[in-house]
Design brief:
single chain; about 325 residues; alpha+beta; Phosphorylase Kinase, domain 1; Transferase(Phosphotransferase), domain 1; 2 domains; five-stranded antiparallel β-sheet
């Protein structure tokens, strides 16, 4: 009997496979390939022998097998195209041979134009105001219709399911599991009584942290990576841009909302969701790391994950979040 192949699927994604996948849709690389920073998927900058639509460099994204269905990926692509058509600066996949989603060697992949830029200066009020205007434009488009197949960001999917997976798969050291579970359940109970379930959900970017915004001086921001786009409250795309102490967050929020409300009304009641959403992300992030641990890139890049110190730190962070959940929300 042949031995079982325990390799992770991405171990089969060699440079030759990447080049062959692109050649299959008429894009021939000149041999140069640069792996870009991405943990969830594999993303490569590829130099072409012949320019495509005037560009001699493209970005190829190979989706993590088993994460999204083709229908869910195509909803992401359709949202990106709708944003681009509305002149929102969103990097959308290229239409090649009449489609945006392609398949090769067991992988689904897309190809996008390369866009340059640097991280935005989030201490600059004018930069935040500019970003706020573009967030409003994303949400104007996102509110026009709903995703049919992509999931929502809610208490069940990000909180309860993440907690249950970690417990069922014995991901937490036994001597820390009890305190972590107690703090997690306490936080989820507070969130269950929050306005989250009643909040209006729209098609949102879903993962709008500074790393997914490229800033071009004189031209402003453009947004990348809709891989985590979900139905979520609009404030989901705002709170990850806030950092520091409460006074600093308050100042940043004011600038974002000033820009946002030049184009779309900002529902201030959603500010009560900032800490619930932050807490859900914290729990979901631990489960995300644990679920990806068989991918060789994760132990290399997150060597601290899974240790007793890591989980003790999570207990302390959840304790802090419980306190934050009970404080008055930010105001704008």
């Amino acid at each position: 009997m042949a031995a079982a192949d325990n390799r992770h699927p991405y171990e089969a994604l060699t440079p030759d496979v990447v080049q062959d996948a692109l050649a299959g849709i008429g894009l021939y690389g000149d041999g140069r390939l640069l792996a870009l920073s991405s943990y969830e998927n594999r993303v490569y900058q590829v130099w072409l022998e012949e320019p495509h639509e005037g560009a001699d460099v493209v970005v190829a994204k190979f989706y993590r097998p088993g994460r999204w269905s083709d229908a869910q990926i195509l909803e992401e692509h359709a949202f990106a195209a709708e944003l681009a058509e509305g002149e929102v600066p969103m990097v959308a996949p290229l239409v090649i041979e009449g489609r945006t989603l392609h398949h090769f060697g067991g992988f689904a992949f897309s190809v996008s134009p390369r866009r340059g830029g640097r991280p935005p200066e989030l201490d600059d009020g004018e930069v935040l105001e500019w970003i706020g205007r573009f967030l409003a434009r994303i949400h104007i488009v996102g509110a026009r219709s709903a995703f049919a197949t992509r999931p929502a960001l809610d208490l069940q999917s990000f909180g309860a399911e993440s907690r249950d997976w970690l417990i069922e798969h014995h991901a937490i050291p036994l001597d820390v599991q009890g305190p972590w579970l107690a703090r997690c359940n306490e936080a989820l109970a507070i969130i269950a009584d929050s306005p989250l379930a009643a909040a209006r959900a729209i098609r949102a970017h879903g993962d709008c942290h500074p790393g997914n915004i490229l800033w071009v001086p004189g031209k402003g921001p453009h947004f990348v990576d809709l891989d985590d786009a979900r139905m979520a409250p609009a404030v989901q795309d705002v709170w990850m841009l806030l950092s520091g102490e409460r006074a600093q967050k308050q100042k940043q929020l004011g600038a974002l909302v000033d820009g946002y409300e030049q184009l779309r009304e900002f529902d201030r009641e959603e500010l009560a969701l900032v800490e619930p959403l932050r807490t859900l992300r914290l729990i979901h992030y631990s489960a995300w790391l644990a679920r990806r641990w068989q991918d060789p890139i994760f132990p290399i890049n997150f060597p601290w994950f899974g240790t007793r110190d890591y989980w003790q730190g999570q207990v302390e962070m959840l304790e802090e979040q419980v306190e934050q959940l009970r404080e008055r929300p930010l105001v704008a």
